[in-house]
Amino acid sequence: RDRKILEEFVSLFELFNEATVLTQGESYATASLVAPTVLGILFDLEHELNSSTLILVSLCKTLISSRKARFSGLPRQFEIDVPNNSYCMSERFADAIFIISPLLDPRFKLLWLNNLDTVVKMRVLEKIRTAFVRFFSKLTFYTAHNVGADTSNTTESTDAFVGTKDNDSSTKRKSLFPYFNETKRITSDDKSKILMELDAYLCEESCEEDLLFSKKHIYPRLYQLALKYLTVPATLAPFERVFSQSGFLMRPHRASLTAKNVCVLSFLKWDECGCG
Q1: Residues contacting 184, CB < 8 A, separation 6+
Q2: Which among 224, 226, 194 has a CA at the least distance from the CA of 210?
Q3: What range(s) does the HAT C-terminal dimerisation domain occupy (predicted)?
Q4: From the centroid of its chain, how far is CA 65?
């Protein structure tokens, strides 16, 4: 019996170990791993719980409830019931980026949604398509906004500000930073082009990790989104490793190293390890 309990214990935590290793990777995108990992672990634990031979029932239930509480914002995206007293900080996982990034990763696309009920899956797909258009509209707005700001004349901008300051003083502001919420208006034609590109990408048979980068001329909009969001690491582990490696370089007897040389040596060391 003790051996059986130990085997069940290892089995319950097996995917946790795999998730820890994968999300700390450095040579591939990890932001896209968050949602598939959380869902995969939840579905596996529920499958184990429904097993008639499970002994560690209480442990399995605790793991399920803790996962739902810790990532409550994410399961709600898939209409999974979560406890009402979940942590407030877990709402950060309600951000649509967590359901957008797996779609941008050719390794996943829509495969990670296969365990969902068909009706729920269709609603999630519609939510993803809507979020995809919204994210792209924000991306194009900020790109155009920054380009316009760089090329504008400083004197003209100052004059415009002075000229409109008095006119706007009597207008009640709706928010402290209204430009944070500004988005470019997407026409129906632009929206159809974006969704057509998305559908064509999903029909691609290739699952190569760099698909959107090698075919950026075919999927320019998806490439822009992937460049922005897939470069975000899922954990801080890669950065902490860089700091650790840099610490080995900054020895007391090498205190005269300049900041530039430290950066170059850190880069060379990191590249030598095959992590660059």
Answers
A1: 137, 138, 140, 141, 144
A2: 226
A3: 212-269
A4: 23
Q: Judge contact between 229 and 101, C-beta under 8 A.
A: yes
The angle at the Cα of 50, spanning 80 to 116, to the nearest 5 degrees, equals 35
Q: How many domains does the chain have?
A: 2
**Domain final residue pick, 53, 74, 103:** 103
User: For residues 137 and 91, what is the distance between their CA atoms, to the nearest angstrom?
Assistant: 24
Determine the Cα angle at 245 with ends 244 and 251, to 5°: 95
Crossing angle of helices 34-49 and 97-104, in 10° steps, is 100
Tens of pLDDT, residue by residue over 95-139, are 888 999 999 999 999 999 998 999 999 999 999 998 888 888 877
- DSSP 8-state code for residue 80: -
To 10 degrees, the CA torsion angle through 235, 238, 241, 246? -130
Residue 12 token pair: 């319950």
Which residue type occupies 51?
Answer: S
Within-domain flag for 217: no
CA 78 → CA 61, 84, 87, 95, 229, distances in Å?
20, 16, 18, 13, 21
Range of the domain at 47: 2-103
Closest CA to 78 of 87, 68, 70: 68
User: Which tens digit of pLDDT belongs to each residue from 210-267?
Assistant: 899 999 999 998 998 898 888 888 887 777 777 777 777 777 777 788 888 888 887 7
Q: Which long-range contacts (CB under 8 A, 24 or more apart) does 210-218 make?
A: 211/106, 212/104, 212/106
Q: Which of 52, 68, 103 is the last residue of a domain?
A: 103
Q: What are phi and psi of 228, to 5 degrees?
A: -85, -45
